[in-house]
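Instructor's aside before we start: the two examples that follow are unrelated to each other. I chose them only because their records fit on one page, so don't look for a connection. First example below.
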Amino acid sequence: MIRCFVITRFSRALILAALLAPGAAAGQASPGPTLSIEEYDPKSTLVVPEHRVPRARFPFVDVHNHQETAARPEDIDRIVRDMDAMNMRVMVNLSGGSSDALAAGVANWSGRHPGRFVTFANLDFSGIDDAAWGERAAAQFERDVRKGGAKGLKIFKNFGLTVKDRAGRRVAVDDPRLDAVFEKCADLKVPVLIHTGEPRSFFEPQDAHNERWLELKQFPQRARPPDRFPTWDQVMGEQHRLFSRHPRTQFIDAHLGWLGGDLAALGKLLDRLPNVTTEIGAVLAELGRQPRFAREWFVRYQDRVMMGKDTWAPEEYPVYFRVLETSDEYFDYYRRRHAFWKMYGLDLPDDVLKKLYYRNALRVIPGIDPSPFPK
């Protein structure tokens, strides 16, 4: 009797487990296949109006792009054809380098297609410990502008994160050793497009609550853990103090200053610092998920923001146009690891679009021919 009772209880447990198993109520023998987060890519069944925008409504200036200065002529010609197809009138190449390489790059690109490219110079931080480094760097930049053809200065993201002096100390974004360079930019009336830091999520714990978790899993080198990097608040605070210390210098705060997810804070920054503008390169995903507030913000700060993309991928620009120009709902961004959410159109007014696409760039960046753009 005891042996029979044990078998019966075990049988009941098996029956109960089968009833509670996923799919049991539907008569399935076993659950479906297990998917990783990388594999899960649901297709929406929502049917809503769609307005694809392969070409921008107005000609535009891309103020944030990167090209090889020594590109082959046939590659430059192909890029210009792609620009024409999407209505990009001018591209700003932020990777100009310095000295002879800069001058050669300007001749290579602008000499072949006059009026289509603007080039920014870059700094060499080697020797930053030398007492005269700042004056030398400022003098070299002046030569890059007057003789090399540079129209501005681009500061890359290594500054403030990985640039160190001989003692191994991180060079802060507001390090006074660069004051001479920024004052020279003011004297020459050319802007500084500065990329400081990274998205805030890169500095946060890589856990289930981090909305850039997938990107950090695929590219772990992008994480900024506190044992090796300053905090996000620290490095961005340094940037904002830099802006304040050089009120004569025109700064373009790249990537919406990594405040695309907190536009109210970005607005307060712009209100406080009239020498700062910004651009939308690589942060479209932040705007497309908050269409009502973002539209309101763009209308309010229409004189302070410019069009930018960052990476050269012609097939991705139409998503920018669609977010900026239409009122479409619930459509895909072009890079899933940046956005687990869908995009919505801002339907910006034409006057705001014109400022975003070209009018603000014409005001901030010297050397752009205004004649091809609408009045």
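Example two begins here.
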Amino acid sequence: MAETNVASGSSLAVKHYSAALFANTLKGASAMENLVGPVEPTAAMQKIAGQTQAGMPLVRIDNLMKNAGDSVSLDLVDTISGEPLMGDVNREGRGSALSFSSMDIRIDLSSKVIDAGGSMSQQRTKHQLREIALAQLSGYFPRLNVQTALVHLAGARGSQTGSDWVIPLQSSANFSSVMVNTVKAPTYNRHYVVNGANLAQGGQQLGSIVSTDALKLTHLDLLRKRIDDMDQPLQSVKLAGDRAAQTSKMWVFLATPNQYSILLTEGSLRAFQQNAINRAAYLDTRHPLFAGEVGMWNGILVIKNERAVRFLPGENTTVITSANAATATETNQAVNGSLTTGFAVERGLLLGAQALGIAYGRTKVSGMQYGWKEHWYNFESNLEVMGEVVCGHMKTRFSIDDGTGAKVPTDFGVIAVDSAVPL
């Protein structure tokens, strides 16, 4: 068979590498990637938009009809309540009105350019240069995706840095454009700070946090109790093939590496780890969420995350106070500047279903979510390659009835939990 050469910039090469980039990104090695369910187009709208399974914390919407700069709408219908109509009482005109709350996810184009080689690369073929650049971009975009999701869920970037981080600090002039959608501080009713053996509601407690306010298994018990006491709690996470999804409800706690290490020092470590093994047995197939470093306590699957949203003593972060709960107006709150030297505050995330929406559009170059472009210059001796994605992340927030008839802004599927950690 004659050898087939794909010319630089040909439509065949563009399609091939665009698809490969998308596939590699979705398989990026991260616990958060396992929180997205498979696409299940069970309704007409889902068939159009390509929405993933709604029982998972991250819902991906592959709306390929959209272009860069457009937005995708998410809608919540409130559960009806009130007394039933009894007997032969007149029922005409006494129907309960449907109530909706909506939010829009804006999508935009994100790109990364790599110079794949110059005069020192002339001995390499074009195909090899492409493979090297593809490998680099296939590592870059998973980090961008996961870190964007983490910052939106946490409602803050924090100050942890390093070569692994691709999201700039919140003080950077580019932060807002990189995040595409506004990063929103946790709502008052979805924010807790460890306070000794208790959990203080709202972020103002950060001003008084001390080094002994570490996250313990007893705090997971308190979180479960708070969920059970809520009129409209976080929806439980439903994994495909989970035979105990209704009888043994489950939520996911993304712990920072430091928070997870502290939990491992608890006296109930063996039960903490065995509970996860026992719960995994109810799944038809082994789910990747149960792989790696995990434990389970009171229905909460604890997963060690790779990165931390961290605040150092004296640093500011935005919170919503009890006085502003009804408006979600944000104010600055400084972390206790007298926190013991060598300690910081890190934010864990308790996740239910539908905590974050991830909307994808399509790139012009490939017609898919991800695109690949290449450009030869300097008399065909230098190659630049570019990966791009049309995407937007946003924490799901709706105005939910607080039980009195008032609508209160509420983070729909995530609770932020701050605790002190040693560095």
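The chain has seven helices and 19 strands.
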